[in-house]
Amino acid sequence: MRQNKTQKEQIQRMKALVDTLDRAAKAYYAEDREIMSNHEYDALYDELTALEEETGIVLSNSPTVNVGYEAVDELPKERHESPMLSLDKTKERESLKSWMQGNPAVLSWKLDGLTIVLTYREGKLAKAVTRGNGEIGEVITNNARTFQNLPMRISFPGELVLRGEAVISYSDFEKINEEIPEEADRYKNPRNLCSGSVRQLNNEITAKRNVRFYAFGLVRAQGEEFHNSRMEQFAFLERQGFEVVEHYLVRPEDILERIAFFQEKIAHYDIPSDGLVLTFEDIAYGRSLGRTAKFPRDSIAFKWADEIRETTLLQIEWSASRTGLINPVAIFEPVELEGTTVSRASVHNVSIVRGLQLGIGDKITVFKANMIIPQIAENLTKSGNLQLPEKCPVCGQPAQIRQVNEAKVLYCANEKCPAKQIKSFTLFVSRDALNIDGLSEATLEKLIDCGFIHEFADLFELERYREDIVQMEGFGVRSFQNLMDSIEKARTTTLPRLLYGLGIAGIGAANAKLICRYFDYDLERMRAADKETLSEIEGIGEVLADAFAEYMADGDNRRRLETLLQKLTLVIPQADTSGQPMVGMNFVITGSLEHYENRNELKDIIEQRGGKVTGSVSKNTTCLINNDIHSNSSKNKKAKELGIPILSEEDFISGYLQ
């Protein structure tokens, strides 16, 4: 037992070291600051290396390993060696107690993400496959290597097969959604975001989504003895460096108390969960029960019985956003749900309003999805008498119903709508944009109403209205001067901050950085870029490319941007292009390689020489690198259509690297 405890302590120390070293590296390389000396960093790095050698475990985000990014044309499919059955379900706590039939069992979270099967051989991750339809899943091995907490190497030398859940936390989900300005384009829940992130064709995108993996079951560990105990299996997985779902050994006499413990915890739990799982502790006994056509008999899922309350719909509040969307929120008589008072719930869009047949005064039932997010469960009276607003609630101009993806939304087409202006200015002065302190949304509304600001450049001319502003409620000489100091500081900024602050649909802070890096921080090249060129940027799809190109092509936007640029000083990183003969060249790599371990190795060599590697062939591609130059692949066909050279690895090396 002491050996296990020691290894657990070692793993905890490794996690702490990885976190400290990663923060130090980010500060040094990305933020141009130091949080520790080189000597301190080297000492901690050496300690981590020694622990990795001693335990045989290497965490995925360890600075001692570098996970390569790679894009693929499609995810291959693979049949599971045994079907992954769904679990039988119940919402009755007492039925769980009777299901146990006096036997001890393991109670754990039922996480709400994407189920993954992992295979390790000789201590290394060999394969990762999604659950799929239970019979056939998609191979996502390279994506799994970017999971934040997945060990790249473990101490167990034999073949190990385990199952777990890939998840994205609520806090990370909210951060990602904050960068998507259009309400209709935002992800509805962490599970959908996680599913899309794990199944990306380019694992660099997966890496940015902070996906985590929690093991919930061991399928096979070659030659290992677990003394017929599920708890022993969990302990073994923890010793290998895996994070496992929170779990407890329970008996019929204490299971209800443990369920209550989980129920209290879920209200503040950052990992999405839609219930619990109960599995017999005795492995052999569980297997002896066999399975039905649909469910294994050794486990059962417990789904939270939603606490549903009946109430009365008082009104639908329509609020306009800076993008023009007019979003509905249901206001109802307050009710107690899961320990809190609730009186509001988002209805999301016009399609849902109509589907629920809502009307003022209707009797509705409400609940908290996963015990967290208030939603309308059912409309009991379905009067359907709710009239959609014909005008924008802010500017009074006509509102339009538009089709966005598969939903109908209400939209204000008035470009001069104050809501659009206020929200746009709020974004422009926000922390990740120009970062101007002292300009709250309420203050901006006052300045707009007074006619002091009409476009972004006007913010840098507020000094001329000094006498008027210091007389405004909430202002004075000191607060006005603080605002002027903040505005003066904001005059010197970076191009990514400016692009994000412009409020181009879909261009968040992260996307703005991607675009700037791609064009070497050359604003004129960005402004002249067409949709096809922008689509080549990894992480920028056709929708975002179209929005960016349209914004830059608009005459009014160009004029306003020119005026704004006269007020700003842009700090542009200076790239050292000496010894970089491939500056300005774009390459596409496809197929298997012979001289390099993988595409990422060749990509690194090209980028070190100043070149760029993109995922698709376009008119801007210098050449396509493919050892099978005569194949009929889509990239070969595209290259031939555009007259782009297709070079084998040998030809590329002799032509560009020698």
Account of the 3D structure:
There is one protein chain. This protein is α+β, with helices and mostly antiparallel strands. The chain has 6 domains: 2-59, Helix Hairpins; 77-303, D-amino Acid Aminotransferase, Chain A, domain 1, CATH 3.30.470; 309-412, Nucleic acid-binding proteins (OB fold (Dihydrolipoamide Acetyltransferase, E2P)), CATH 2.40.50; 418-490, 5' to 3' exonuclease, C-terminal subdomain (DNA polymerase, domain 1, Orthogonal Bundle); 495-571, DNA polymerase, domain 1 (Orthogonal Bundle), CATH 1.10.150.20; 586-657, Rossmann fold (3-Layer(aba) Sandwich). Helices cover 35% and strands 22% of the residues. Strands 14, 15, 16, 17, 18, 19 and 20 form a 7-stranded antiparallel β-sheet that branches. Strands 3-13-12-4-11 form a 5-stranded mixed β-sheet. Strand 5 and strand 6 (124-130) form a beta hairpin. Helix 1 packs antiparallel against helix 2 and helix 12 crosses helix 13. The longest helix has 28 residues, at 2-29. The relative contact order is 0.07. The model is unreliable at 28-33 (pLDDT under 50).
Assigned CATH superfamily of the largest domain: DNA ligase/mRNA capping enzyme
Q: Report the principal-axis shape.
A: globular
Distance between the termini: 59 Å
**Proportion of β residues?**
15-25%
Query: If helices are DSSP runs of H or I spanning 4 or more residues, what is the number of helices?
Result: 24
What ranges have pLDDT less than 50 throughout 5 or more consecutive residues? 28-33
- Mean pLDDT over the residues: 84
CATH topology of the largest domain: D-amino Acid Aminotransferase, Chain A, domain 1
CATH class wording of the largest domain: Alpha Beta
The helical percent reads 25-40%
The Rg value, from CA coordinates, equals 28 Å
Helix/strand/pairing category:
alpha+beta
Q: What is the tally of beta strands?
A: 26
